[in-house]
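Write out a record, fold above all:
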Amino acid sequence: MAGPGAGALLSRWVRRRPACACSLLAALCYLNTLRAGFVYDDTRAILTNGDVRSSTPLTALLQHDFWGTPLSHGGSHGSYRPLTVLTFRLNHALAGLRPALYHTTNVALHAVCSGLVEAVAGLVGRADLLALLFTLCSLLSYARQAKEQGIAALPLCLLYDVFVHSRTSMSALLTPQRQDKRLLRLQQSCALVSLACAALLSARLSVLGGGGALSSALTLIHLPAVSVGLLLLPHHLSFDWSDSALPPLLGPADPRNAASAALLLGLAALLFAACRAPAETATNNNNNGSSSSSKPSRPGGHSGPGRPGLLFALCFSLLTFLPASNLLFYVGFLVAERVLYAPSVGFCLLVGRGLSLLEARWRRLGPALSALLLAVLAARTLLRNEDWRDEQALYTAGVPYSPAKALGNLATIMADRGRLEEAERAYRAALAVRYNMADVHYNLGNLLYSQGKYAESTQSYQKAVGFRRQFAQAYLNLAHAHIKLGQSEAARRVLLACRDLNGSRIRDPRSHTSARVSCLVELGRLFAEKENDPPQALTQYQQALELASEHYHKETIYNLIGEAQYRLSNYDEAEAWFRRALEIQPGMVHAHIFYGKMLAKNKTRMDEAEGWFHRARTTAPFNYVVYLHYGQFLYDAGRLQEAAEVYLRGVELAPSEYDLTFNLANVYRELSQYERAEFYYRRATHIRPEDVHSHRNLGAILHLNGKLQEAEAAYLTALGLSPGDHVTEVNLARLYNIMERRGRGQRAADGK
């Protein structure tokens, strides 16, 4: 006789091991997420979150929110999930920043929970996975324990006890009891658990710092309807449901109120169906150790959860959804698909109840419909997982539902890949949908700045600052654009404004503080280089050092303090600061250069000074700044030929660098190589046509080369740039004398 076929064996295994079958199927649906990368919020939650790295003390996880911001900071999100961050930390310890292990962990957790929502593909959804995992573990553990321990259980455990295990009706539970000790114990448990929930809610609100309603009660009521719609028909899915995707309801006439009304009526109908008839109860006789029970009747005689089970499933969904519904407090978002992960358990129980009713009446319809639902939803899950493969796929899929944020994020990806024209169009399209997005204005400014469109970039940065007054990085980049445009005073005003930002409610205080430190550094450089005010520069650098966190590259500030002390002729202090910078970063070229310049002030340490210039040249052989300062050192030492060779190498590396070109021309002039000097003076006038010195020196070298007409033109150009310039006027007068003498001699020769 032939043995059972493979299909029969599989069917038998599924019936015997339903939990394993569910876990296996759940894992299979998310296997294609294992090749996905870090996307969307994963960047901030993992890639830039210092709490994920072992260098951060473990105690910080108890003091920081999910994103690594101190809970005491005014800008903290308030999302307190230390256990989730700890699992990220373990992943990082094992795999660094390779995403495969992170996704594998999520899929494994999902297999255990056996749920089907989008919290699996996005790594930040691990908090929802863990929340459901521990909720289910506590519930299953409680279901196996004696009822007397129910006084310490959480609400879901209590609901399980009331509606599933004891099959107590709502009316019986709400009726005062004195004789029935079992019901009395349940009522006492309900009261105690309610007090415990109130305490937990109070603690949660204290972490969040309170909460508030959205624009209107109608919008608040509509948000759960949107979430239920995503559970019922997960067709339109998005990585973000912000106000542009879910604008506030306009009033009672808004057609979206129909969905809210349908939700409320549906909940009322389910509650009525679950509570309209008392359920039969089970009894226990602890004296004789025996028990007798009468099973409640079920429609159609089928097996499965009765009305108490229906009420439990409904309460499971409501209780797990309520904390993320914005009805108690604002949770930082309007709608998020990942927070439907735990409520989906109750939803699946409700769907299972409905399918069992269908199977009782039409035996083949229930299993067929179950198989169809399973196939359709599994296919939808696999397709949606592909959207989470990388950020471009995710944001492209989100354009129809959240166009402003999706287009802004897509534009950033295009800019990173060098598709600058497409990126600019995408940024402007995003702003056309929603104009007040500070991040998009800022990113557009960065794009324009990178293309040399400094004037346009200032407009974008100003709008970013206008929409977000505490946007320190936008202030910093706006100042950079003003400096590029030669607007030093405007840059100084912007940097001073950035310096005075308080950042009390900034979501990312570390980045904000780093930007403010950079503003102080740039302000110091402005005082040092543009305004020639070393004392003011030193003050800004010292403030930057006080503000800088341990994550900031302090060697830069040390070096700048050394430069300021050098300009103030405080050479001992300068040397100490240069050495501190070089201890942290031995390859710091600017520290090498200024240390060498400082040592050169002491004629007894010239060889030591030149050694630092050689180190700079070895460290950065293609950095033209090294050749600029080393050439000046050789020039000051009277080693003109060597200086010319060093300057020439610098000009080869940076042909458009004015100081190198001008200095090389000066050295050739002193070496009496006038033709070469003329060549480089001409180049200097093309590089910086508004500079009087290059035109004046070009006139002088043309004068020496006997090109008197060209010399006159160069002198006149210099006087046009700087009227009354004494040196130019003296040189021009000498030129005219020579030209006059030559003119008289020519006329005399013609007379003969």
Residues 115-121, 142-153, 204-215, 277-305 have pLDDT under 50 and may be disordered. The longest strand covers residues 282-284. DSSP finds 35 helices and two strands in the chain. The beta strands are 282-284, 291-293.
